[in-house]
DNA sequence: GTGAAAGCGCTAACAA
DNA sequence: TTGTTAGCGCTTTCAC
């Protein structure tokens, strides 16, 4: 009973025109008289015809599919970004083929192969480091690539991030202005440019005030490791315990807050000020009420889409390789607010 | 410089065989001699050939793409499910074309049209109610459909959910055993079968003990509305205030807990016991430590994939239409634990 | 502006 | 087992 698909030929016959006329009517840039157009549209309507995208893709070489590779969906920044990205692309007439993968190199390799098989028109890598090998494969296939929330050291590949360095620096300034003394940091995965930039900015901020880090642990953007890091850092005598903590992302900051408050019985911000990075939704939940640096997902997505389409449509007028979106400090209650502090 | 794609013909020439021989080597069910296979594989390797999936799809009618429609990514149950689903499907050689949409009817309609354009081999609707019109369109197109975390009243369409009714009943029993007196419920969106079943089970549990609901508000699975619901419910004199609350999902439960604790200064579970549904990751975070009913995402995904593939591969041996996965109560600290309570 | 015809890269009869 | 051939549904010259 599976009604076999209606083709352009069926429409052509009903409309009393040639098959290519039908094609033209449904091809944006093509020319057809008003009369033909109407006849064809009517016939198509009557038959419930829709052009076969796959056939179109095979001949035109454009699938209108964008591949999206995401490696780290546990961080609630990514679902949000995914949603916005998908919507933005849909608006432009593209669709998203999602590939969830671990960071393992072989896996990403495979995934890229499969995307290329599907003739994707472009690929977005979210929170994924790219081997130059992979980048080259995409280039060879003529498939534009944009990195989302990461950039590549070789700088020859389009990337959209927040102003992570600036964000880190703002945190340092805020903490310093708050009169904190023993300032600590829980780092993310060192392979990520986000981690490196945030820490570098943070340190720069401290250094500018002639201060240095009191303690540092590594959480690798992982909840379990962050928990361990927080424990070693705070389960110490009061004199040497940090009184302020910057965590490389919100996800780990929540874990750290829970350890500080519920395992060690310390107060936030009375004993310890905590600041995160991302501003994922739970940061605004009252239990955390986390002061954090906001990644403007919408803007980042806009820039990503723009960069991608620019490449696809070959508007390659000196493509800006590294786009950084401003990242404001969102002041909530998890860190002491300096006297007379005003947002800038 | 875009290296034009290598085709099976290129491989055939290099290998000194016919183009169809190449096709056969790359087609799972086809026959070719060892010698031919080796020659072809070598040539393909040398050239970096990969079959063009789109061309294959157009002629075979199978795209190996599964469409996924998700309407409600704010609930952290869905990112998790999406990840597992994508992985499971990848393992079976399928890929996921994601469509994020609002519940609006027209939108889902459009989305279905687009999926059909891409010749998807099947569609999963997550947290989406289906009009019979849409269901019919998919059926006409011969595209199998599975509902995830919803079922359809017409029961003629495959669906995978948790045992929501049972889950709700367990909550009632737990709260009753805990000696609670004024038991309240914050409802989700009434259009969702999950909401209806959870509440029905919950009420059945109360009724079985000759009890009834003390208070009921509607949160519609929305954070803002849940906040308002919690306020009207708990900003009341102590005598009439509920001492136990079941919330239709975790997402709203977090909001309610924050209102109860941080806005009204009440204790959980000392003043109010709170129980949710889903067991999303934040439920285990110490700040919430939420007693909740777990939706076993992995199992649900397995069943979804199984149901989908069964239909695709026409193993339609009396397809079980409505699959419900067992949903255990996860006892944490947000609700008073009855004396001598043991998990069953 | 329109139709005829070629061809995108592949699979699937069919003969050999 | 193999090669030949005919499409799949569409876009795109190319004459008219």
UniProtKB/TrEMBL annotation, chains A, B:
Which organism is this protein's natural source? Oceanicola granulosus (strain ATCC BAA-861 / DSM 15982 / KCTC 12143 / HTCC2516)
Q: Which Pfam families match?
A: LacI, Peripla_BP_3
Report the GO molecular function annotations: DNA-binding transcription factor activity; transcription cis-regulatory region binding
InterPro entries membership? HTH_LacI, LacI/GalR-like_sensor, Lambda_DNA-bd_dom_sf, Peripla_BP_I
> Which UniProt keyword terms apply here?
DNA-binding, Repressor, Transcription, Transcription regulation
Q: Which part of the chain is the HTH lacI-type domain?
A: 6-60
Could you tell me which Gene3D superfamilies the record lists for this protein? Answer: 3.40.50.2300, lambda repressor-like DNA-binding domains
Repressor is among the record's keywords? yes
What name has this protein been given in UniProt? Transcriptional regulator
